Amino acid sequence: MPMKFKALAPVFLVEDVVRAAEHYHDRMGFEMTSYFGNPPEFTIVQRAEVRIALRRCCGVRGGSNRKYLDDAIDAYVWIEGINDFYRDLKERGASVAGPPALRVYGIREIEVRDADGYIICFGEFAASQSFSKNA
């Protein structure tokens, strides 16, 4: 069988796994899965095929790349229907930096900050853009 990459799940270090997972559920519409450990040490939240692993790390809260670079992000998620997603996030009370903005590289993006300070950028290709298989 040929090699095939299937998915990627960034691992975010959080102080409280349950609080972090509930934030993703309540504010961003992710499904919660099983917790592992007592107290919970690990879980994965999921929305469609996008997964984010949450790992407890005492004393850590918000290990975002923004600590090192002002415009850094921690994860990038390609989506379709960014306007509907933006409205859903706003209705849920998520921390969204602003409405979808068209970037010079032809992608409409929004940035969302989670409860621990991680920045997730969601992007949708403009109508005339798409991934190049040769890139």
Q: Please report the first level of CATH classification, the CATH class.
A: Alpha Beta
Question: Would you count the extended β strands for me?
Answer: 9
Number of helices: 2
CATH architecture descriptor text? Roll
Rg calc: 16 Å
| Percent range of helical residues | 10-25%
What's the number of domains?
A: 1
The CATH topology comes to 2,3-Dihydroxybiphenyl 1,2-Dioxygenase, domain 1
Alpha-carbon distance between the two ends: 24 Å
- Uncertain regions: pLDDT < 50 for 5+ in a row? none
Fourth-level CATH superfamily: 2,3-Dihydroxybiphenyl 1,2-Dioxygenase, domain 1
From the spread of the alpha carbons, the general shape counts as globular
Classify the secondary structure makeup into a structural class: alpha+beta
Beta content: 25-35%
Average pLDDT for all residues: 90
Question: What's the SSE pattern?
Answer: EHEEEEHEEEE
Biggest sheet overview: 5 strands, mixed
List the helices and strands and how they pair.
Layout: E1 11-14, H1 17-28, E2 31-32, E3 42-47, E4 50-56, E5 75-78, H2 82-92, E6 95-96, E7 101-102, E8 107-113, E9 119-125
Parallel strand pairs: 1-4, 5-9
Antiparallel strand pairs: 2-3, 3-4, 6-8, 7-8, 8-9
